[in-house]
């Protein structure tokens, strides 16, 4: 079962520029979470802060009692072995073949025999659909293949926490859909805690159990997916609908004057109930997602604090069997 | 669960520091920037020294790097050291002739080659050929996020990549120093005996009259230190390139320049100390 990630009061600045401040959230163990946000709101910075590559000035990231911000480097290094991080462009080692790239964590951290390494690596290569390309160098394959190879490398040590940085960028819609399904299937198989950073609306609508959104140096909200999908907060609804009208401007945010003018002209955020697309289920033959079962209990117990629209959506979604249990 | 929606009031700068944020430290002074860089360089040197003794040692990477550094430096070093030894022999030869001390030409030129010329030739080649390659390699890995990826997988880039490279430059420097000393001395002998008509016997005999073993030791020690410094500076500049491919180019350039300056300075210090603590032969 995955590990809970607790983020408390995280604040990060580069020089004078504040990226985000006082971000607090909990990634529940074994569930899939998505962090949304317009480009340039520090989503990748957030991901790198969780894994300890960047050190925020304030706050903590607790994983198994280790604070990824302030703990000694040795403990952080040890904790990182629990992680699998998929970089935006794969971040493969340019001088190694795909096979060696994917085998790298195994060779560094385990004393497995070469035959066993080969078996594990080929299995992962098969999962991401790269069979036949294992002897190629990263420079010889397409961006989408690099991404999938990056995912295979992230998976090879059976991580408890998987972080994905924009899994969809550079992929066509069909491959993105396959990748979404792959992530859900993975979650069903290894029950890892997952955090996906993206601004792809399809992934946001269909993959996660929980969603959060970063905007304007703040965590706007984080909670069960239905809360965001039904939210009538202008930022969230603008983003999820992909409209121009709303608080998000070309350069991150509009100022109040433009916003007011927009409302006067009657082009303000068009309110209207959005339908909640059902979440992806694991493919047939996959085990039931334990995370989804736990989430059901968790969400039911917090029902009282949720807005009305979210409550209805949750109840609707739970009328069929949860967690992909095909009865 | 939901925070109030932040909307920026009109007319305020985008990067305004929020009023409720806790006061941050003062922005660091520009005057101290060189000190900060120096401090980081020393911190890296300390980290590398510590990581040298940490298991597992990257044998494969070390051998690959050793081979690479050796292959790019051996031939140029040998080729440079022949004329270098010759120049010293010719210069010293004509000087001793004026002084009427021709019989000491051999000793004087071998001292100059072994103590000064050879470690400096090694320094130039190690920093120019090997250091620049190491710096470019690490720098491009850094900007392609390969080093981040490595760190994320719980593998320390310092231990995995930097330590084998620094050890390789140190070992190659020591061995190369031996090679350059021999080739330089042979070059000096050839030019003195053949070109200037010196006597072979006097040339060789004066070796033991002026030179002593500690002269060789200090030469090798210098080479070891130069190899370490070249490796560390190259790694430091490679690990901290500024912004993109151009930053890597600049980093390589700076690494070579910084290494040269450091090496000549350290050479001066080491020579001064050596001349103080080791008495010249026969005194």
From TrEMBL, chain A:
SUPFAM superfamilies referenced in this protein's UniProt entry, alphabetically: P-loop containing nucleoside triphosphate hydrolases
Region (Disordered): 263-288
Domain ABC transporter residues, every copy: 5-241
Gene Ontology MF, one: ATP binding
UniProt keyword list: ATP-binding, Nucleotide-binding, Transport
InterPro entries referenced in this protein's UniProt entry, alphabetically: AAA+_ATPase, ABC_transporter-like_ATP-bd, ABC_transporter-like_CS, P-loop_NTPase
The protein's name: Phospholipid/cholesterol/gamma-HCH transport system ATP-binding protein
Automatic annotation (TrEMBL), chain B:
Keyword vocabulary terms for this entry: Membrane, Transmembrane, Transmembrane helix
Transmembrane regions listed in the UniProt entry: 66-90, 120-140, 223-239, 251-275
Region feature (Disordered): 1-30
InterPro entries: Permease_MalE
Keyword Transmembrane helix included in the entry's annotation: yes
Entry superkingdom: Bacteria
A Pfam family reported for this protein in Swiss-Prot or TrEMBL: MlaE
Descriptive protein name: Phospholipid/cholesterol/gamma-HCH transport system permease protein
